[in-house]
Amino acid sequence: MRSYKIKGKEHFVYDLESELPEDITIIPSWKNARDGDWVRADDNAYIQVLKRKKIGKTDVVQTCIGTYSATGKMGTAER
Predict the structure, then answer these.
(1) Which residues pair with 10 in a beta bridge?
(2) pTM for this prediction
């Protein structure tokens, strides 16, 4: 488990499924996730989508690690 502070609030990235708190439900595809959903990234870590929005014509999701295009891949290594 890793933690990051964004605007004074702590956010977590779970590297193993066994680390996930019991009350977290994982959405099957991060590319379709909504604000607040927990997802499995392409590198198999678990992370929360903080915000989903459009930048120009591109759908993106923002996480505590960075912003990802819904047409690309999501990795949880620090940028």
Answers:
(1) 5
(2) 0.89
